[in-house]
Amino acid sequence: MPAATHPETVDTSALPPYVLALKERVAYLPEPQVMRVIRAYEVGAQAHEGQARKSGEPYITHPVAVAGILAELGLDAETIIAAILHDTLEDTELSRTELASEFGETVAELVDGVTKLDKMRFSSRQEADAESFRKMLLAMARDLRVILIKLADRLHNMRTLGAKDAPSRRRIASETLEIYAPIAQRLGMNKFKAELQDLGFRALHPDRYRVISERIRAALGNRREAMGKIEAALSTRLTAEHIGSKVIGRIKSPWSIYSKMRNEHKSFAQLMDVYGFRVVVDNAMSCYMALGAVHSLYKPVDRRFKDFIAIPKANGYQSLHTVLLGPFGAPIEVQIRTAEMDSVAERGVAAHWAYKTDSGPANSAQARAREWLSSLADSQANTASSSEFIENVKIDLFPDEVYLFTPRGDILSLPRNATALDFAYAVHTDVGDHAVAARVDKKLLPLRTRLESGQLVEIITAPSAVPNPAWLESVVTGKARTAIRQYLKHLQHEDAVDFGHRMLDRALDAQGSSLDAIPAAVLDRFLEASKLKRLEELLSDIALGNRMPDVVAGQLLAARGKQKGGAAVQAPHVTEKIRITGAERGVLSFGNCCHPLPGDEIIGYLSSGKGIVVHRVECPNVVELRKSPERCVAIEWDRDVQGDYRAELRIEVINRPGVLATVAAAIAAANSNIENVEYVERDAAAATLLFALEVKNRKHLADVIRRVRRTGVVSGAYRYPL
């Protein structure tokens, strides 16, 4: 590498046209920084000398083009320099030390961050790619500029994709649509997102892209006059109200048309039969005045107004959205925003860029992006599996938000279909862990209630309340899912250790020994040979079905026998059963085939990774399970059993109005909660209903059946399956 040159001595007279164009684009920077950018080009050009792109152009044209894309966003000098040098560490002899000594540690860190991302290849969000994706998001969390360089790099690669072979084009396009466009959207960079989506769509489905593009052009030709008239009418009305504004007609992109046709099952005509306009005004107050003006010109469509100024989207986007009934019988979509909001909508985190430390100010899009990335860092720290982490992130990358109020008036944004439980965890993990109910708009509702925008939500907690596995079916946010799983894993481990201890003791007892009788040295050697650190891990493995208690007992006794120089002692098999209270939910689950209840005669089956699955002895599947006797566990209900258990009732009723309500009332009168009801068979005279309900035990279920039979509308009621 040449010796460092002082920026002010750089000769710009012999620079190629594409570098002079970049020099013009970065003219917003102070002159010494512009010279540093030119110096970065010289260093990059020398490092990449002899390298060419697939198109045959010198390789340096690509990083300079990436820097040009970022210069259009007005980014700082370090980002522009890092963009020019972003491939040097991986593809050239230039070292990180040399880079840092000439351009500073910040540039070196950015280039290093982008280099690590460049080594990642995604085809889809599957387990194989999950770890790479996790690393990319964490690199973003450290410095947002890393992902901005990567997005610009991807955008230029997509613009020049034609030089690649067909399989590479498809792979890169798929990766762009699945990974990079959603990240651009989440960072509020809608201009990047839209171009990445359309370029990806064109490369992945060229025929569909061509057909839709041609139809858009044809539709625009037919409606140009109508759009002009609406635009003129809007401008005239706003001028008459003395509102300074700019009105721009908006056209849907081929990708957005294709996505909506596919996802919303709409025809091309339905989607193009909409006129779209953007109104840009001077300040936030003018936005609301402009809204009044357009509503007085054309009638607004009910329930189609959204105020993203008062309640910004999670990525910092702000605008008023309204739908009007136009003069040609078609809806008119109007977005009203200030010039600054328009800049943030287009550029997101890159709008008005002035990179600050965490303690410094940042625009709302940057602040929200950092908050999101910080929450990702917390999530990954508590998530063992990469695929589980991706599952959580996926929800955040494709948000369709609802906006909710806390009792103090704070606003929380959550994904669509979020429940009160998601809200509780969004407030704080401790609030979620101890939640028992929610007060939504002052009405008491269960935690599984789905929330809608604008609701006031208050969470009711109790110190004794704890998460349960069923909560995982109610939540949609990554934060709630991670917190619940974390708690359950801890609970499962404690339960598993206790239960595994009882199972191993029983197995050793059956062979005339006990765990206390196994010398510590024998136990330590066994754990070391099994690659386990502690006895608790062995006991947990046994309870979760990963090791058979009888086999472990035999191995321990054999090892003890060798130490003593004799054979292990064998004793008559003892048939004492392990008692369960039902509270061991960390290691116990109950068969959906037979729904065992306290009072039933039961048997346990060790299922690998799941622990013990409890079945009724008369369950039809038990015959098959007994073919693996080493996995069968002799268990019975303890005298003191707590909690509710699922049972199913098959009820034959006379088919007449009100019969369902009558049966439901009888079940409720027996203090049983109905989880679900469905019609199994139905004709004019009779119907068969299948009720899923919660009962305490077998006796409680018998009481429910008695009450149901007394209603007078039932011809038969019995437990299902029999």
Automatic annotation (TrEMBL):
It catalyses: guanosine 3',5'-bis(diphosphate) + H2O = GDP + diphosphate + H(+). Residues 648-722 form the ACT domain. SMART domains: HDc, RelA_SpoT. Residues 400-461 form the TGS domain. It comes from the Bacteria. InterPro entries: ACT-like_dom_sf, ACT_dom, Beta-grasp_dom_sf, HD/PDEase_dom, HD_domain, NT_sf, RelA/Spo_fam, RelA/SpoT_AH_RIS. In eubacteria ppGpp (guanosine 3'-diphosphate 5'-diphosphate) is a mediator of the stringent response that coordinates a variety of cellular activities in response to changes in nutritional abundance. Belongs to the relA/spoT family. PANTHER family: BIFUNCTIONAL (P)PPGPP SYNTHASE_HYDROLASE SPOT (PTHR21262:SF36), GUANOSINE-3',5'-BIS DIPHOSPHATE 3'-PYROPHOSPHOHYDROLASE (PTHR21262). This is guanosine-3',5'-bis(diphosphate) 3'-diphosphatase.
